[in-house]
Every structure is written in C-alpha cells, then in structure tokens.
Amino acid sequence: MIRPRPRSAGTPGSIPTAAPADTADNAPAIPVSHTTGAQAPAIGNLGRPFTKDAVDLRTTLAHMLLAGGAAAVITLACWFALGATNLPSFNSSFVTKALSTAATVIVIGAAAGACFVWLTNRPAKRRYLLSAALYLVPAGLVVTTLAIPLAATSLYLDGISVDQAFRTQYLTRMTDHLGWADMAYLDQPSFYPGLWFFSGGLFAKLTGMAGWAAYKPWALVTLSATASMLVPVWRRITGSLVIAVAVALVSTAVTLAIAAEEPYAAIVAMGMPAAVVLARRAMRGGRGSLLGLIVFLGLSANLYTLYTGLTAIITIALAISAAAAGKTIRPILRLGAAGIASMAIAAIGWGPYLLALATRPHGPTGKAQHYLPDAGTFVPTPFFQATALGALTLLGLIWLIMRSKRGDARALIVGLSCCYAWVVASMIMALVGTTLLGFRLDLPISLMLAAAGVLALADIRIVGVRRLYPQTVKPEWSRIATRIMAIVLALGCLNYACTIPINQRDRIDLAYTDSDGEAHRGDRFPADATQYYAKIDTFLSQRLKTRAGSVILTDEKSFLAYYPYHGYQALTAHYANPLGQFEKRNDEIESWTDIKDPQKMLDAMDKAQADNGWHSPDAIVLRGQLSKGKVIPKERFSYLIADDIYPNQPNVRFRTVNFHTEAFASGWDLGQIGPFVVAVRERDRG
C-alpha cells in the first residue's frame, strides 16, 4: 500500500528501503538526512531514526484491520455506557461540555505521554501494548468530542433536520431490507452511494436496533474505525509511529470540526491526503500503493462520489506528470489498470442504477449540483485563520513550497492545486446553471495542509537546526527541540480539539431539540407532531399488512425517516432519484388537487401508474380535519410541494397545495390522528 519492509541499512538522505521490486513505495514522505556522516539523525536520546517503525505491507494491512476493529468495539462500548448515564442535555447545561473537555485533555495528554515513551524508552515487553494504545488515540478523540456531547440524545448531529432526514430515511430502508434499493421510490435502484448505509443497515439488524436509532452509533463507530486505521497507513508512509499518530490525530480533529455531520463523506475525506501520496507512488511503480489506491477509489465511489472524482483527477494529473518526467507510458498504463480495477469495485453499487438509467425513462440527473451556499463563493484559505489549525496549515504551506521537489510534497501540491481548480470551476459553472459543489472541498484542502504541517514539524526536527549548524548544536539542544515541538503540537491539537463541540454547537442542539423515532427529545421538552407517528404507523400497519412495499403520499419527512414505508414522492429534488421523475410527479400530484369526485381521483392515480410505472399511493398522510371519521365538505387536506428554485438560496421552496376532501369520501378508509388525516386506499390485499 505504501512502503515495504526496510532493510537493515539505508543510504543517506533516504528512508531505508526493501526489495527493489516496489521501489516507488520507498519514497520518503519526509527527508531523513545525515549531518557529518552517514548516520541517520537521532530522535530523543537513544539515536533511533524516525524510520525505525517502518513495517511491511502485510503487517500494515493486519494493523489496519485490528485497529479499525478495536476502535469500533471500544467506541460502541463507550456509546452504550454513555447511554446508560443521566447526563443533562448539551443545550441547557455545560456539564457535558466540561466532561468532553476533560476527557479530551486526558486522551491527548495520554497520547503525548505514550509518544514520548515510545521515542525515549521503549521496553520490548510494553512495545505492543504501547503501539496498540497509540493506534486507538484517534478513536478516543471521536468519543470525547462527539459521543460525550451527544450522550443524552438518541439522535446524531443535526437531529432529523436539514439533510439528516433523507440520510436517516436511507438507513431505515437498508435496515428494513438490505440491498441497493432507493430510499423513497418503490422498485428503483438507489442512485445515492449506499455502502455506508448498507453496512449500517447490517449493523442495525445485528444489534436489533431501528434504523434511525442505529444512525448515531454507526456514525461514531465508522468515524472512530477510520480514524484509527489512518495510523498504520501513515506509519507505512512515514516509517514513524509517532508521526503517524500525529497526522491521524490532527486529521481526525479537523474532520470532526468541519464535516462530522456527514459521516460517510468524512471517512473518505480523512483518507484523501494518504490517497494522494499513494497515487504518486502508484504511478511510479509501487505495487502496494497501487493496491491501496484501487481499494480507496473503489470503496469511496460507493461512499461519497464527489471526493472519488476529485481523487481520480489528482491521480490522472500525477500520472501525466510521471509519464512526462520519465518519458515513458508506464504511468499511463498503471493509471488505466487502477481505473479499470477501481471502477469494477464501484460498479457493485453503481451498476444497477446506471443500467436502469440507460434503459428506463428518467428526469434530470444534475439536480444534486443545484446548490450554491455562501461558503461556495469563497476560496478556502485555512492558513489565514487565527487558530491552531491556521498556524499548522500555514506551516504546511511553507513546507510544501520549500520541499516542492520532493515526491510526496509534490503530490500534495498537485492535490491542492486540483482542489483549488475545482473550487474555482464550481463558481464558474454557475453560469451554465449548475455547480461542482466546490464548498465541499474545504475539508480535503484543510486535511492536506494539516498533514503537510505535521510532516513539516517532523522535517524541522530531523534536518532543521542541526543540519544548518552541525558543529554547534549539542545533543541536549536536539532533545529540548524534540520536546518543545511535541509539547507545542500536543497543546495546539488540544486547543483545537476542545473547540469541536463549540464549532458543532448548532448541530448538537438540533440533536437535542428534534424528536426521535420514539417521540422523545433529548432536552426532555414535549415532542412535536412526531408524537402521533406511532399511532399513524399502527393505523397503516393494521390495514396495509406490511410497511415495505406500501407507498405513502405525505410531506412528513420525519415519518418516512423513522418508518420504512416507501414514499410516493421524495423529500426534495436534490436527493430524489432521477429515475423517480421528481418534477413530473409534482405536476401529477398538483393536478389531483383539482379533483372532487372520488372515482376520478382513483382513476387519476391508476392512470399515472399505468402511464409512468409509478406505484399509486396505498395511503396518504396529510394535515386536515375529519368529522366523526367522515370528510367535511368544502374543507381541504394540505400537502407541501418542494420546488427546486436554484440559483436562489435557499434552493428549495415549499408551497402548500390543497386536496378537496370530497375526493376521499369513498374508496378510502379514513382516520383522524392528531392534526393528521390518514387515508388508506381500499384494495383487495388478500
């Protein structure tokens, strides 16, 4: 995946290398220089070079699996333990914030201490225990900064608001029926990358949880597992466990602060800096790097395609650069191999949708790009922020410029250049009525620069002052420099990590103020209309016999997120499957509001099914009033239609249309549940 097992001896200026068959995997992420002789520079007071921790590919893969598995189990145990407590809500008390800060201090302090022991005094008996603890440090940060602030609620960041409604609906669908089915439309393959939701549905089934209830623990587990798996990856890249822990810990903190609300995208972004380094090495002949790149591209395509596409573009640029520099087509051939193999993996999830898109009628396929928030009008420059992240990314930027002739630094430069080009292109694309969602690249840009910042600190320690003044810098000064940089990095990470709950305050508040699937709020205030959902579900289940396969027309997005009924219409155009023909369905639904005759209403629904293949509604759940179970003449049942109004912001407009109550006077089994009228179509269901 990255560098193979080192030889017992190396050459000055390079990390010790292994078998020459995989030479591109040996290129150092940071230079290891010599001073006055061939001896590699020492760390601490024992004379160990950073590359002492280099491991082979097989060991790296084993460590990734063990670290990810252990992190998942420990995080799940912490989530369960926190759920058994009686902590106050985050939005009404500072108790959970205080506990989060204290726990973060302990985790980062323990990590700093473990790194110091690893560098200065590494007894063989404690070597494996110490390395295992360091592998799990990033997972500990996920627990302290997210799990603790969310301890008193069943919901994840953003609750069931904003985009979490459709994400929860997707996980609920996968929990009910594992596969690649669309979250809303019946008998349609999903067009949204489904690997995270598929595995989350499996997790919910194995633990016996409802889909909505599994969302928070699954998000925490996947974030923790990915964060811990970064440590062995970066260990193989740099040859140093300490540097690997630092990069992984910083990457985790940045991800949690910027984009933790979208866990399946976050776990892809966390791996992008390493993937960029792998891409350069893969294009230059590294077999392990090529394998790692293929797996990353293939899996990420089934998680968050935007980042996959960006990584692919970076890989293409690196391949062209390698081909031009070496005057050979071998990098292009390796690029082709990586592309074919990764697309084969991606086709597992994308194949059914692409096949259906080519053979069935569908609506516009670019609605998801119809979004340009304020953040999409700025070029991300984290290095100008007056924060610990700003200082680290500025250092990383300077290091990239100074080390631009070195392979891995050059790879990150190419990666950042592609990111910034994408951001600017996204703004220009507004002229043709779409975007490239450039605002989403704030996270990858910050992660690449932050990783470069950590590598810069390591570089300074190895070839800094002592290389400039080899005759005057004493070993004691070297030890002091090591400790100072370690302390500064630890304190900077601590300062930044402790602000994560504050940066996510609004999203955490929604997790407490929204009502969960059992009509409970984390802040213990009365629930909203969600309190009626259980009765609605009972009413529907008694008459429809099954949830899956039953199509409901409703604008209650939370109801479809908590219960696995299929929707006649998706929540908004931006997350609607093009195969569902969202806008055409809107027109059809609105045409029904002119109908008063019950039989004509049924005929219109059946005609839409016959003409378009849309399964007609088995039931409707709308707001309105009945009188003793009968419709009230001249009254209305209201329904919210979502219109895509891009380029305006907000990009969605909800408008109310009203159904004539007389249209449901016969042919429907009616019930009044709270403010909702529930109407089940009378069919022969055997």
UniProtKB/TrEMBL annotation:
Residues 1-31 are annotated as: Disordered. It is found in: Cell membrane. One of its GO terms (molecular function) is glycosyltransferase activity. InterPro entries: ArabinofuranosylTrfase_AftA_C, ArabinofuranosylTrfase_AftA_N. Its EC number is 2.4.2.46. Keywords: Cell membrane, Membrane, Transferase, Transmembrane, Transmembrane helix. Coiled coil: none annotated. It is an enzyme of class 2 (transferase). One of its GO terms (biological process) is cell wall macromolecule biosynthetic process. Signal peptide: none annotated. Residues 15-31 have a biased composition (Low complexity). Residues 500-681 form the Arabinofuranosyltransferase AftA C-terminal domain. One of its GO terms (cellular component) is plasma membrane. The chain crosses the membrane at residues 61-82, 102-120, 132-157, 195-215, 236-258, 313-329, 336-358, 378-400, 412-437, 443-460, 480-497. Pfam families: AftA_C, AftA_N. Its main location: membrane. It catalyses: Adds an alpha-D-arabinofuranosyl group from trans,octacis-decaprenylphospho-beta-D-arabinofuranose at the 5-O-position of the eighth, tenth and twelfth galactofuranose unit of the galactofuranan chain of [beta-D-galactofuranosyl-(1->5)-beta-D-galactofuranosyl-(1->6)]14-beta-D-galactofuranosyl-(1->5)-beta-D-galactofuranosyl-(1->4)-alpha-L-rhamnopyranosyl-(1->3)-N-acetyl-alpha-D-glucosaminyl-diphospho-trans,octacis-decaprenol. It is a multi-pass membrane protein. Residues 64-492 form the Arabinofuranosyltransferase AftA N-terminal domain. Pathway: Cell wall biogenesis; cell wall polysaccharide biosynthesis. Belongs to the glycosyltransferase 85 family. This is Galactan 5-O-arabinofuranosyltransferase.
